[in-house]
TrEMBL record:
Keywords: Exonuclease, Exosome, Hydrolase, Nuclease, Nucleus, rRNA processing. The keyword Nucleus applies. Its main location: nucleus. The lineage of its organism: Eukaryota, Viridiplantae, Streptophyta, Embryophyta, Tracheophyta. It comes from Hibiscus sabdariffa (roselle). Residues 475-555 form the HRDC domain. Pfam families: DNA_pol_A_exo1, HRDC, PMC2NT. Residues 17-27 have a biased composition (Polar residues). This is HRDC domain-containing protein.
């Protein structure tokens, strides 16, 4: 028994009353300095029997209990934070620290730590990728499915002089969006899917796309694009005289029509029948649909701008506009039309003839950059706000900013085409080109037109091409998981008409394979509640992981190939062994699989 006069006890009391106080001062400063002082002082804390001895004294016990309480509630808060782990995935700190085994708390801490570091890692990785892409392309990149519907984009607009003309600006999308950082939604999860809202039917089967509006070749083996029957020389402006470019009126003084009703579409078609040139552009969504969805069609004539709500008028677009787009006597001006051409075929059965692609013209003219943004700036002195490029185009009603941006994408195109045509005519023929520069542009544009939409075909070894798999150093078990999850993801994406990136991004798929979680809670911890279809099928996914691990022998050869970096050479024979992990048949997706507890 210790007496109050016991000198050893007195020394201990004074020592550890200081210890208690100094602990409290340690945790009261800024986080970084607190952390470093705490970690270096941790070694001086009494442990084991020594701790129990000092714990007999109020001067030690009281501040220590206070600190324990504070840190306990802090840890509890971190573990249950839905911000960190999602609303259903709290990882509560084991209660009652006094009575739990140290290693339980330790495991909890390392888990949490790993989770936070992982999230940080993912974010830094993504940030770097976006940065690299931006630097490569000079465009503000955006589709980040891991984001909660918002992405941070950096406005970096500099205004340059206009080539021979006065300067105007895109005031409608200026202001907040062009100065500094702005939050631009690229995904709004609460939007009702237009596929349901407007009854848009899509065919996501693995069968090849049928071009029902095209004739087949004589041998019946391929579809024939209408352009094939014509030569570029049939429609290239034969008149080589330089004509005066026609400058468009400002956006503000140009009549504008948002086409949302069939009667307006009919009126638009009638107007287009009477013009011989039109500028066209599309806006598209590829995140909430398997093959992609055309959300808007912008059309400008010399005097008017139109925006067609293609989601609302889906089945009417083809019947009203098909002939106009096919008409050889009407010049269609588009910028970088490669993807638009395919979207028009896929969604509306529209096949375009007589294209002048300003992107191709920019290449032939050897301009310093080939983006529309650059052409707008260079020829029209307009600073386009490309932050809109990849925003949530499914949103209705369209905001003023969206309308303004969408109009700007076609409003100046006919004028830009005039200017480019003049320069092409004045440009000496390049020795490496057989044709004059203008004809070269028409030929290139015609090649763009004649591409035919095809569905992406999956091969038995497609899973080996998941981005990031090379270099992941996976063993056969992990590779078996990649293959099985890849098939599950493809199946769900087709049925639900979602992108595979929305169902389960590659990075997360690979992380699951890496960690091989064999319980729903371990899997959930990895997902942060971000992937509703994985959550829906959580039991099935866990079973798939377990099953893949048991049947991994078939993946030994493939794993070796990947490790040796020889994926492109993986032969049919070797990947055939992976067929055990083929796509899950639909009947495996029963409601019992969808229970949250498995
Ligand atoms: P644009 O030809 O610039 O009007 O773009 C047409 C569509 O392509 C947009 O609606 C987007 O869906 C997509 N898109 C364009 N630029 C990007 C980008 N940098 N990242 C992702 N998608 C893009
Ligand atoms: Zn476009
Ligand atoms: Mn556009």
């Amino acid at each position: 028994m210790k007496s109050d006069n016991d000198p050893i006890a007195m020394e201990a009391r004074s020592d550890h009353s200081n210890n208690g106080q100094s602990l409290q001062t340690l945790v009261s400063g800024p986080l970084s300095s607190s952390l470093s002082s705490l970690s270096s002082s941790a070694r001086t804390l009494p442990s084991n029997q020594e701790f129990h001895f000092f714990n007999n004294f109020d001067n030690f016990r009281l501040p220590f209990n206070q600190i324990t309480k504070t840190s306990d509630s802090l840890l509890q808060f971190i573990g249950s934070s839905s911000k960190n782990w999602g609303p259903n995935n709290s990882i509560n700190f084991p209660n009652n620290i006094g009575s739990i085994a140290d290693d339980e708390a330790y495991r909890w801490l390392t888990d949490i730590n790993d989770g936070i570091l992982e999230q940080f890692d993912v974010s830094v990785d993504e940030f770097q990728k976006i940065r690299e892409k931006e630097e490569e392309t000079g465009r503000v990149a955006g589709s980040d499915p891991d984001n909660n519907g918002f992405q941070l984009v950096q406005g970096k607009k500099k205004k340059k002089g206009m080539e021979g003309g006065s300067s105007s600006s895109s005031s409608g999308v200026k202001g907040k969006m062009t100065t500094g950082k702005a939050k631009v939604p690229f995904h709004i999860p609460t939007i009702r899917k237009p596929q349901e809202e407007y009854n848009i039917r899509v065919n996501n089967s693995k069968q090849p796309f049928q071009h029902v509006w095209l004739q087949k070749s004589e041998d019946g083996l391929r579809f024939v694009h209408p352009m094939e029957k014509h030569s570029v020389m049939d429609f290239v402006d034969k008149d080589t005289v330089v004509v005066e470019p026609i400058k468009p009126s400002s956006i503000e003084s140009t009549p504008f029509k948002l086409v949302e009703e069939v009667k307006d579409l009919k009126e638009l078609a009638a107007k287009l029948r009477s013009v011989d040139e039109l500028a066209v552009d599309l806006e598209h969504n590829h995140y909430r649909s398997f093959q992609g969805l055309t959300c808007l069609m912008q059309i400008s004539t010399r005097t008017e701008d139109f925006i067609v709500d293609t989601l609302k008028l889906w089945i009417h677009i083809g019947p009203y506009l098909r002939e106009i787009f096919k008409d050889l006597s009407k010049k269609k001006v588009m910028h970088g039309a490669d993807r638009d051409i395919l979207w028009l075929q896929r969604d509306f059965g529209i096949y375009l003839c007589n294209l002048f692609d300003t992107g191709q013209a920019s290449r032939v003219l050897k301009l310093e950059r080939n983006s529309l943004e650059h052409l707008l700036q260079h020829y029209c002195g307009v600073t386009a706000n490309k932050e809109y490029q990849n925003i949530e185009w499914r949103l209705r009603p369209l905001t003023d900013g969206m309308l303004r941006y969408a109009r700007e994408d076609t409003h100046y195109l006919l004028y830009i085409c005039d200017l480019m045509r003049t320069r092409l005519l004045l440009m000496p023929k390049e020795p490496e080109h057989f044709d004059s520069p203008l004809v070269e542009v028409y030929k290139r544009s015609s090649d763009v037109c004649m591409q035919l939409y095809e569905k992406e075909q999956l091969m038995p070894n497609s899973y080996l091409h998941v981005y990031g798999l090379q270099g992941a150093g996976f063993n056969a078990e992990q590779l078996a998981i990649v293959a099985a999850l890849f098939d599950w993801r493809d199946f769900v994406a087709r049925v639900e008409d979602e992108s595979t990136g929305y169902i389960l991004p590659n990075k997360v798929l690979l992380e699951i394979a890496k960690q091989m979680p064999v319980t729903a809670s371990k899997l959930r911890r990895l997902l942060n509640s971000k992937y509703p279809y994985v959550e829906r099928d959580i039991c099935l996914v866990v079973d798939t992981i377990k099953h893949s691990m048991q049947n991994a022998a078939a993946f030994e050869a493939a794993a070796q190939q990947v490790r040796m970096g020889r994926v492109q050479n993986v032969s049919e024979e070797q990947v055939a062994v992976n067929e055990g992990a083929e796509a899950l048949p639909p009947e495996t997706l029963t409601d019992s699989n969808r229970n949250h507890r498995c």
